[in-house]
Specification:
Number of helices: 2
Oligomer: single chain
Shape: flat
Distance between the termini: 23 Å
Structural class: mainly alpha
Radius of gyration: 24 Å
């Protein structure tokens, strides 16, 4: 008789969940520190004179920083979701 393997499903260990929560909290704290520092720097830099550069005729206007950032994150999110679906399907197939 051939022995068969039984497939068991386990949840993510509690310690992994706690570590990930602590990591996210630390990242959020670092991000807030960075925002605070950038805001302070922006207030100081606002006192400096700003050079006005002439527009280049025929050159398209560049998108705003916010628009470029949103586009980059939207693209990255879609790519990550696609990769996640692929890896989950592959892992399911191979297990």
């Amino acid at each position: 008789m051939v022995a068969t393997k039984t497939k068991t499903t386990t949840e993510v260990p509690e310690i992994a969940v706690k570590i990930s929560e602590q990591m996210i909290t630390a990242v959020k704290q670092y991000q807030q520190f960075s925002i605070d520092a950038a805001q302070t720097w922006a207030k100081v830099a606002a006192a400096f004179p700003v050079a006005e550069f002439p527009a280049i005729p025929g050159a398209p206007e560049l998108p705003s920083t916010e628009a470029l950032t949103a586009f980059a994150f939207d693209f990255t999110t879609e790519l990550l979701n696609t990769q996640r679906a692929f890896v989950l399907q592959l892992a399911n197939t191979l297990s």
